[in-house]
Amino acid sequence: MSEHLSAEIWIGGNVPESIVPDLCAAITDEDVALEWGESPFQPRTAGDLETSLRENDKLERLLWLCDERASWGKFENLERFLREHQIPFTRRTEGRYEYDPEIVEYRPVFDEITLAVNHAGQPTVVAAKLEPVEHLLDAAIKLAQTDIEANTVSLMQTALELLRAQLPRQLPPLEPFSIEPTCGFKGGEHDNQEQTEEAEANQESPAVPGG
Question: Which pLDDT belongs to residue 205?
Fold first, then answer.
């Protein structure tokens, strides 16, 4: 039996119009909502997605979805779909009982990164993993104090490498969510609108024989 944890996901980047129906289906199947406690969001068109965007703390317009009872605090099928189509996202899962909070970052040019965080969403580092860094820096200081001509650079470089290995990787922020028109794609609401406008234009401007 799975645990149910609160989770939210921010989706950004350019989404090809041709996969919008599949994205809508993936969202619908996940039973996620646009607000905590609301009924599930069931988009059908690109317009449904675009009118549901909201700004994050960096004022970028993204698609934000949530579920107070996500299985293991994940959106497994939706996240798999996003990775398969290289659509960037950030997922945050609240901790409860023995389960720690976490943030999962996915960008197409990087591997997926899972970060342990506190309840404020700030990344954390296990103190024990920093002990080797402390020992190396302590050794470098003592060596410099006893021998002013000693070369402590290698010790400090090793300490820096160990420290960087424990710090979160710097990732590019999520780009605004947008629907990218796909050449030749039919079936979207934009295509239907264009077809209607074209038909109306043909009725208003009949062809002139011999033109």
Answer: 46
Q: What is the pLDDT of residues 50-74, one digit of tens each?
A: 999 999 998 999 999 999 999 999 9
Q: Tell me the pTM.
A: 0.77
H helix runs in the chain, sequence order: 20-30, 46-50, 76-84, 131-146, 153-166, 189-204
Q: Provide the 3-class DSSP secondary structure of residue 129.
A: helix
Q: Per the structure block, which two tokens stand in for 157?
A: 């470089």
Domain boundaries, the chain: 4-123+169-184, 127-166
Phi, psi of 113 (to 5 degrees): -120, 130
- Report CA 193 to chain centroid distance, whole Å: 31
DSSP one-letter code for 33: B
Q: How far is CA 118 from CA 93, 135, 179, in A?
A: 11, 26, 34
- The CB density around residue 39, as the number of other CB atoms within 10 Å, is 9
Cα dihedral 20→21→23→24 (10° resolution): 110
Rg for the chain, CA atoms, rounded? 25
